[in-house]
């Protein structure tokens, strides 16, 4: 069946074909003596598809995103990115002085930016972790939101980690709406690919808060798996979650790739000690160094990165 639909003020019409919907055989209509159900599974599907489209359009997360480093000093052919991860803001077991010092280093260093690999606030609402929180989850989220406001265009990207995601598991609240709704930087749900533009160069940075293949014997194994299975064309692979610190380069198909495990600010961790994970978390503070004049990238401790920028 077709219909004529007026599509503008001049009276132009367009022929619209109605989708084919087969008639439901009479014997397939569910009936009881007191009621008759007239909603078939096709109408149910139409409703689900309609609402799913609205939810998708309201999503502020993305799979890939771009960030262009603001070049304050063109005479310095480097950019410096603080790999910020597992800060767990809000728990008394995190080193908040370390977090503040790292943020200040980004603010005071030219050509610098911050990329957050997840669990920026603790949100300890699972497994007794709520007893280590000094401030409630909503104030933790506000603190991160205000920190991002101060960083401004130095905030390059953010990954949603498992701790903030407990907001969704327990209350149906997607955490990005609590702290990153107005953030211009791309927000990745668990993992994503950042296209970093540094001067004349572009670098592909694969970020994941967690990924399979984790090993204490080979701490970069999960980064290798991330490269092989998700982002084979990326240059840099960052995986957090385990509170492990380290970086390593490898030659793959004739090109260098870089693996980073960014560490944490939760340097005191009773949960990890009790469960035999580690005595303490390894303090974060790795700088991703990317040149602006030619394709070259490496990682160094943050203090060395600042010296390079001088």
Describe this structure in words.
The chain is of the alpha/beta class. It folds into 2 domains: 54 residues, no CATH class; 249 residues, Metallo-dependent phosphatases (Purple Acid Phosphatase, chain A, domain 2, 4-Layer Sandwich). The chain has 8 helices and 14 strands. The strands form 3 sheets. A 6-stranded mixed β-sheet has the order 3-8-9-10-12-11, covered by helices on one side. Strands 7-6-5-4-13-14 form a 6-stranded mixed β-sheet, covered by helices on one side. The chain has a two-stranded antiparallel ribbon with strand order 1-2. It is globular and about 80 Å long. The model has no long low-confidence stretch (mean pLDDT 92).
What can be said about this structure in brief?
The protein has 310 residues and is of the alpha/beta class.
Helix-strand blueprint:
Elements (H helix, E strand, L loop, with lengths): L1 E5 L6 E5 L23 H17 L6 E5 L9 E7 L11 H13 L3 E5 L20 H15 L3 E5 L2 H10 L4 H4 L7 E2 L2 E8 L2 E8 L12 H9 L6 E4 L5 E8 L2 E8 L7 H5 L11 E6 L5 E5 H8 L1
Parallel strand pairs: 3-8, 4-5, 5-6, 6-7, 9-10, 10-12
Antiparallel strand pairs: 1-2, 4-13, 8-9, 11-12, 13-14
Return the CATH class of the largest domain: Alpha Beta
Overall tally of domains:
2
Average pLDDT level: 92
Report Rg. 25 Å
Give the N-terminus to C-terminus distance in angstroms. Answer: 73 Å
Structural class: alpha/beta
Task: Please list the strands of the largest sheet in the order they lie side by side.
Answer: 3-8-9-10-12-11
How many strands appear in the DSSP assignment? 14
Helix/strand order, N-terminal first = EEHEEHEHEHHEEEHEEEHEEH
Helix content: 25-40%
CATH superfamily of the largest domain: Metallo-dependent phosphatases
